[in-house]
Amino acid sequence: MSVTPTKLKKRASGELVGAELHTRLDLADLLDAESAWTPWRFRMIKQLHQAGIPRANWPQHWHWNWVHKLLSKGTLDIGGALSPLRLMGVKCEDEWQGLVLATCLGHQSRIAKGGMDLLYLKYLESAPWNLVVNEIGQAPRYSGVGRQLMELGVRLSEALDFRGRIGLHALPQADGFYVRCGMTDLGDDPRYEGLRYFEMTEEQARAFLNPGRTNR
Amino acid sequence: MMSAKRTMTLNLTGAEMDALEELSKRKELSKTAVIRQALRLYQAVDVRLAAGEKLFFEDEVEKKKAEVMVL
C-alpha cells in the first residue's frame, strides 16, 4: 500500500492538519470506514427525520453500504495486486475521511475516439461528518476531501497509462462538484438509472492537477 | 503507485505482435500497459469462471445477451 502525506483544512478553525492519501486499501480498511460512517449516517438521518425534513432533501447517498455494493458485484477482492478494482482513501486523525472505488476494466471514453480506456469511478464518498447538512446545522469537519479523492483517481489513471481520463455517474446532488472539477457533463444516461455521466479528458485532467496553469 | 517491477522477454508471433501494436496505437497505451490490462481481465474472468459463473456480453439497447464462449 502506498501512502502519501497531504493536508486537510479543519473547517471550524481553518487549521491545516496532516493527512494521508492511501492508494491501495483492502476489505479491512473498508470495514473500518463503514463501522465509523454507518452510525453517523443513521444519526444524521434520524435528526433530519425528526426535524421534518422531506426525504428529497436528505443526502442522496445516505443509504450507501460499500460492502453490500461490492458483494452485489460478486467480489470483495479490492486489495489484490491484479484486481481491476482499486479502493483508495484519505485518512486524517486516524479516521477515513473519504473513499473512492475505481475500476480499470470495462469502461471506454465516450469523448475520445477509438475506444480509449479510462478509469471509471464507481463510488466516491466523503465521510458523513464532512457533509454540509444545513437543515440540521451540520458543517463539514474537513473541507477539500472530495477534491483529494478525485486527485487520487486522476493519478491512478495516469499510472495506468490512461492519461488522467476518468468517467463516472453522479447523483444529482454531486453534479455541481464534478462540474467544478472541470469534467464534461454528457447528460442523463438511460442505461444507468438516468444518472448524469461525467467524463474528464486528458486535457481536463492536466488542468485539474495544475489549476491556474495554461494548457499547452 | 505501482509495485516493484520485473522484466521478461516475450516471444510473439507476427499476428500476435500486430494485434498488440494495433491495440497499443488505437488506445494510446504502451505495449506494457496493454499486456497489463489483458492480464487483469484474464485473471478477473478466470476467477469468476472457476467459481462457476458465466461471462456475458449485453446489448442494452437491442435487449440482447450473449454468453461469451471461453476456451
What are its keywords?
heterodimer, A: 216 residues, alpha+beta, Aminopeptidase, 9-stranded mixed beta sheet, 5 helices, 28% helix, 26% strand, globular, B: 71 residues, mainly alpha, two-stranded antiparallel ribbon, 2 helices, extended
SSE layout and pairing:
The complex is a heterodimer of chains A (216) and B (71).
Chain A: E1 3-10, E2 16-22, H1 27-50, H2 66-72, E3 85-92, E4 95-103, E5 119-126, E6 142-143, H3 145-159, E7 166-170, H4 175-180, E8 184-188, E9 196-200, H5 202-209
Parallel strand pairs in A: 5-7
Antiparallel strand pairs in A: 1-2, 1-6, 2-3, 3-4, 4-5, 7-9, 8-9
Chain B: H1 14-26, H2 31-50, E1 56-59, E2 64-67
Antiparallel strand pairs in B: 1-2
Helix pairs in contact in B: 1-2
Structural write-up:
The complex is a heterodimer of chains A (216) and B (71). In chain A, strand 8 (184-188) and strand 9 form a beta hairpin. Chain A has 216 residues and is an alpha+beta fold. Chain A has helices at 27-50, 66-72, 145-159, 175-180, 202-209; strands at 3-10, 16-22, 85-92, 95-103, 119-126, 142-143, 166-170, 184-188, 196-200. Chain A is globular, with a radius of gyration of 17 Å. Chain A is built from 5 helices and 9 strands; from the N terminus they run E-E-H-H-E-E-E-E-H-E-H-E-E-H. In chain A, strands 6-1-2-3-4-5-7-9-8 form a 9-stranded mixed sheet, with helices on both faces. Chain B starts with 13 loop residues before the first helix and ends with a strand. Chain B has one domain. Chain B has 2 helices and 2 strands, in the order ααββ. Chain B has a two-stranded antiparallel sheet with strand order 1-2. Chain B is mainly alpha-helical. Chains A and B meet through helix 3 of A and helix 2 of B.
